[in-house]
Amino acid sequence: SIKSCLTHRHSYVRKSAALCVFHIAKLHGEHLLPDGPDLIAEFLAAETDMAARRNAFLMLINENEQFAFEFLGQHIQEGITQFGDGFCLLVLE
Question: How confident is the model at residue 92 (pLDDT cuts 50, 70, 90)?
């Protein structure tokens, strides 16, 4: 399942799973994955891969801005640049 892929040992699987959750939420709303934003918020807090974080944040900013802003507020002191260029560009958008 996609939820189990969010904790897979390979980062490319986790990155793709985060994007899948985003597209499921975008196309089907809360019908298929009612806990999508909560799931991705937890994933984003624990994830270390830059591309996976970018994809997770993309989902949050589009589906639940409150969670996205909370994440930024918690990590702004550390510096957003530590999350990579792709993440920084997404924040600027």
Answer: confident
